[in-house]
Amino acid sequence: MQTEYEAATGPLGPIQWTVIEPTRAWAALRLGELWRARELVFFLTWRDVKVRYKQTAIGAGWAVLQPLITVAIFTLIFGRVAHLPSGGRPYLIFVFAAMLPWSYFAYSITQSGKSLVDNEKLITKVYFPRLALPIAATLTGLVDFAVGCGVFAVMMVIFGVAPTWRLLLLPCFLLMAIAAALGVGFWLSGMNVRYRDVKYVLPFLTQIWLFASPVAYTAGVVKGKLALVYALNPMAGVIDGFRWALLGPAPHGSAATGFNPAMLIPSILVTIALLAGGVFYFKHMDKVFADVI
What we know:
By secondary structure, this protein is mostly helical.
C-alpha cells in the first residue's frame, strides 16, 4: 500500500514522501493502481513483441509456421491414419480453427508463467503493479493470434467456407480465452517465483492440456458423465466455440461441429474461478516477490 504525507518544507515548497508497504489483507487487490499503470502495460507488451522477433530470419512468419506444422502433423496422423471425424469439413481447416485459440492460450500461459522471473532486475529495482507483467505477456500473444486469423481467412477462401452470423460471437470466445490465459498465468507466475520447478512443468502441462482439449477431435466424442468432467476444461468451451463461430454447422448437422452450449457453462464457471483465484493468489504473493525472486 502507498501512503503519502508531507514530510518537510524545502526551498521549492513542501516535500511529499511516498511510503510503499506490503498489503496486509487478501482483499487488497488495488486494481485502480493497475489501471493508472495502463501505459506501462502497453509498453511492456510492445517490448515483448519487439524482443520476440528481434534478429529472426522470418520474423512474424513464426506465428504462421508453428501452428501450420502442428496442423499438418495432426492431419496426417489423426485425419489420414486414425480417420477421426471432422463433421464433413476438410480436416485441415477443422484443426486449424481449433489451433487459433489453443496456440494463443499455450503461448500466453508459457510466457506469463515465467514473466516475473524474466524481469527479476526490474522487480527488485523499482516499484510498479506486478500484475502488469503477466498481463503484458498475455496480450503479446494477440499479435500472433491476429496473424493466424489472417491465414485462416485465406484458408476459408481456398476451401470455400463462407462466414455466417456466428462470426459475430467470436470476440466472446476470444475474451474467454484471454480470461483463461490470465487466470492460469497469474497462478503459474506467482508459483514460479517461489518454486522454480514450474518452468520444468510448463512444457509438460501444455502438452497434456493439448490432448485433453478438442483440437484434433470434437468434444462430441466424449459421452455420458465424463462429458461434464471434460467440460471443466475451460479450453474445451473456447475451442468448440471458435470452431462453431468460424465454420458454422457442418454439412452433416450442427452436432458434428462438437459444439454443445450446455458444456459451455462449466467452462465459463471454471474460467471465472481461475481468474478470480489467480488474482487473489498473485496479490497475496506480491509482498514477497522482491525478497525471494
